[in-house]
Amino acid sequence: MEKILVVEDEKGIRDTLQDILELAGYEVLLAANGKIGYNLILEDQPDLVLCDVNMPELGGFELLEAVNQSLKDKVIPPFLFLTAKVDKEDVLYGMSLGADDYLLKPFSASHILKTVRLRLDKRQHLLELTSTNKAEVVINEIDKLALPSDDGLELIPFDKMIKCQADRSYCNFYLIDNRKILVSKPMKEFEEILTSKGFLKVHKSTIVNIKHIEKIIRGKAGHLLMSDGSIVNVSARKKEELIHLFNSNA
Predict the structure, then answer these.
(1) Hey, which residues does 50 pair with through a beta bridge?
(2) How far apart are CA 140 and CA 157, in angstroms?
(3) Please, is 237 exposed, middle or buried when counting C-beta atoms within 10 Å of its C-beta (0-12, 13-18, 19+)?
(4) Which of 193, 138, 209 is nearest to 146 (CA)?
(5) Which of 6, 104, 188, 193 is deepest in the core (most CB within 10 A)?
(6) Under DSSP, is residue 242 helix (H, G, I), strand (E, B) or coil?
(7) What is the predicted pLDDT for the residue at 142?
(8) Which carries the bigger pLDDT value, residue 34 or residue 167?
(9) DSSP string spanning 120-187?
(10) pTM of the predicted model as reported, rounded to 2 decimal places
């Protein structure tokens, strides 16, 4: 039976979520604040966390940040945040910590169950990739990297990779054919390989293929326009290095 932790300081909402989830066949753990929730995550290892954003003791964002620090590269349960309002800055901040989704209050039982099921299925898929070691890194003589796809390991040429971005203990490879391949290994597993093949780490969460940089967008913060039209953040330290690199190749 899959285990879901509900972290919510309002008892009425907490009880309602418990009823919805238990009727759907889930085991439910309850926490009235983030501190209790933190201990339950470490001790009981739930499969998913439904968490209020604003709570006394320890808020939702602080809870996720604490869990990230404690579990580091381990598989962290999906976090679904509950909130009465959507603030763009809060959403972006939560996503930067690894939030998987936001659910607005008041919520419907059907929407809660649909979102929970979707995130649990995704987590199971990632765990299966890890256990079968399908994300084994392989480099052959024709400069390709073996990455997992729906059909098993697929050899991807390095020049067809636009960027690699971290997602907790996983990473996403973005390809020139608009595909994205999710790999159940942290980005650091690929960093040495990629940087030896013409890639550059421009942010703690992003490595880009230098050949696919269209231009540097200057400003208070550094950004890159990539060949697929995406915008990539650049750390302050790497911004000057990139400007120097482009000026020397001009």
Answers:
(1) 6, 80
(2) 10
(3) exposed
(4) 138
(5) 6
(6) helix
(7) 46
(8) 34
(9) HHHHHHHHHHHHHTTT---B-TTSEEEEEETTEEEEEEGGGEEEEEEETTEEEEEETTS-EEEESS-T
(10) 0.55
